[in-house]
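Appendix B. Extra example for self-study. Work through it before the problem class; the solution is given directly after the inputs so you can check yourself.
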Amino acid sequence: MDRRLRSALKGLTDPDVERRRRAMERFVRATFETFLRYLYRYLGNEVDCEDVLEDVYADIWENPAHLRNIGNERHLLRTVYLYYMRNYLREIYRRRNRHLHLSQKGLQRLVSPDLGILEMMSEAELREALHRMLNKLKARERRAIELWMEGMSNRAIANELKTTVDAVKMLKFRTILKLKKLMVDYCPKN
Amino acid sequence: MSDTNRTIEKLLDDYMEALRDGCLPTFLKSLSRQEARLIEDSEEFWEAAQMARVLNGAGFADQAVTPNVGLFISRVDAEIGSRLKKTTPLPRSKRGTGARHATKTIR
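Solution. Structure tokens for the complete assembly:
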């Protein structure tokens, strides 16, 4: 783990309030980007991500007990997600869920799911696994996913693949399920 | 998202679009009762949704990185300050003092 992050983590449990506040500043600098990227998976916009993170950091400052024996960055991310982020992810849309048809349980599963094998991987590991597994797909399947990740609309993808929008939706759905299976099979071996 | 009887692949597609565009609440609001039930019962949807989140993080999280960490730190510091104020008890002299009591008597 980065030396600055380790020292900031140590400082978070300092009994002196001012020292803890300074340690929090170092902690935010060291982790902000990683946490923001992680939250972005679930929320998809930085305004909500920053709102959640603001409360997450304040909670960590108030009660840093869960971060006492952190060994590496993956462990840190997992602990922060389980003990600090998840509550706020659940909260953020719960208030807006009064008139929705999706049950609270369904909403929770959608915005603050349990940690699966893919969520436990670091970003670098994920990128590498994704790169490898995309290469295992058929050319058409890979192209559909790559075009979507480039930010193209379904209509644009359909034009590119010379097919219909509905066929693109079905292709993406099947390909994503296939990709998920490939990723899960790949992870335990590595 | 005006269709109210979408199939599971269309629902996943709309979820992916909503994640990519950062408007998840719009997707949640668009769900009809029937579609919500379809999602909840479909294991395939949950599997695919997990992968969609991973793809969203890998493909688009770069857009989210705010360069001004300093500004964000001041937000966190203000939040900590406000929580500190809430938890720190007021000094005794500012609670019920003789002066306040005197004002009451004058009235």
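Self-check: Chain A touches chain B through 68 residues (CB under 8 Å). If your reasoning did not lead you there, revisit section 3.
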